[in-house]
Amino acid sequence: MAGRATNESSAGSQRERLTGWVDSSLVVLCVASVAVTVLAGLVQVSFGAFSMSLVEAWQAVFNPQVVLNPQTWEAFLLGGEVPEMNKRSLIVWNIRMPRVFVAVAAGMCLAVSGAIFQAVTRNELASPFVLGVSSGAGFTVLLTLVVFSSLTPFLPLLAALGGTFAFLLVYFIAWKDGTSPVRLVLAGVIVNMVFSSLQRALFFFADDLGTVQSAMAWITGSLTGVGWEQFRIAALPTLFAVLFALAGARQLNLLLLGEQTASALGMRVERVRFLLSGVAILAASAAISVAGIIGFFGLVVPHIVRLTVGSDYRRLLVGCVFLGPALMVLADVGARLALNPVQIPVGVVTGVIGGPYFLYLMRRQEQMGEI
Hints:
- About 75% of the residues lie in helices and about 0% in strands.
- The chain is built from 17 helices and no strands.
- It has helices at about 1-20, 25-45, 55-60, 65, 70-80, 85-120, 135-145, 155-175, 180-200, 210-220, 230-245, 250-255, 260-265, 270-290, 295-310, 315-335, 345-365.
- Helix 7 (about 135-145) packs antiparallel against helix 10 (about 210-220) and helix 11 (about 230-245) runs antiparallel to helix 14.
- It is globular.
- The model has no long low-confidence stretch (mean pLDDT about 85).
């Protein structure tokens, strides 16, 4: 009887450790985010050059001949010839749905990346954009498009290398017997400005108008024209980055306690910090390689989640995984419909809305900076 009671107690403790941190606020946030993602996605696929009613578009989305056909998913996810289907389903699934899926991946990556950077630097002003990772990755992408176009298939890897170099440069500049939140942000602003200037300089070397337009789309952040190829590029990096981020939630919580406390608890602080930074860079690079530089997103979304579910990174990262896609798909719907039929880059929408909202957060909180 004593052994049975011990086993039951052990199982109860393990269950508490695995799911005890899940609360009602997180569940509500996740369910609401899924609902917003689905509804915004349905609105997104209902508009385009080929006119169809909402009912016709939604019937095409839920067409069982597409949704339940393994060959169709194989063609979408692995590449190849798409099986025969009716015209509306072909337009919706081959042209419009990839934009929704890429928006989901990009939103998830940027939100998770921003949350990790804020914990690693213990600075709630940190984000891939502020720390220069976005501009470093963006510069590498533009350099590839304008000068080394034959390397285009390796864009995610090159973007990750550019983002990594930019982040290491920020750390090097900010390091003076350790780093501080203020020095990291200032170093990030400097690196961001340098890489942004280099991006503009590349336009002088672009002779082809199509290359210039493509480069402009990267800088402003746009999901216009993305397809299943872009989703295939981002899918695996997104999956790995999210899984590694969720697995590192406990370490992120320890980092928030401070270096001395984390070291006293047995953590190799610098090693963990750089490994988690690598995960954040991978996530940001995956988003940038398919959607360009989308400002404010990685900064604002973790703040919204933190205000909703608290600072425990087990809840915060899960919240980012759900809320990031919802807000990105919603912002992309605004980018498509705000000046219809003209489509504006989604980075413009996130900047116009994200900037004032972040200003509101700053004025609402008495202190902002170190977490």
